[in-house]
């Protein structure tokens, strides 16, 4: 699958992606022939751009851009809410769970502690194993729903991320259900993880 990305300043875009060769451009657009490779590069940037000791983002390790502040979390939330709305409108079979699942697979953690650190460093929430049989993961300070109110669980993306990540950790397919959600008034978000039989 080819993806065409156009911008007025291609030099800036190439710098952000870490690419700087003329072969990457064709006819005014950038053609990225391998989507998985682009995703992998971006995940690697996320992993190396953070100070592991201080849990702070080091912008200079990520890009040459001169940005003084972080992108607000509300932008991420808004993007996800718009995706949810569009998915429903289009009656798509693709869900936020599926998108999260792919994200979790690309994180490719080797164990629970690696996943926990990734969540914490990227301000996605603080993971804690609440139960081992069945596996229930508690997520404090959930980035996607903290402060929101809903009649139903809304962390489909997080559930998918945990499913993809735990597939890598356990080397088997799992299904993840959010059983309690902060948006419904719970003290944290709780996810039940079960291997597919």
TrEMBL record:
Stored InterPro entries: NO_sig/Golgi_transp_ligand-bd, V4R
UniProt-listed Pfam families: V4R
Domain of life, source organism: Archaea
Domain named 4-vinyl reductase 4VR: residues: 134-195
Designated name of the protein: 4-vinyl reductase 4VR
Organism: Methanococcus aeolicus (strain ATCC BAA-1280 / DSM 17508 / OCM 812 / Nankai-3)
Source lineage: Archaea, Methanobacteriati, Methanobacteriota, Methanomada group, Methanococci
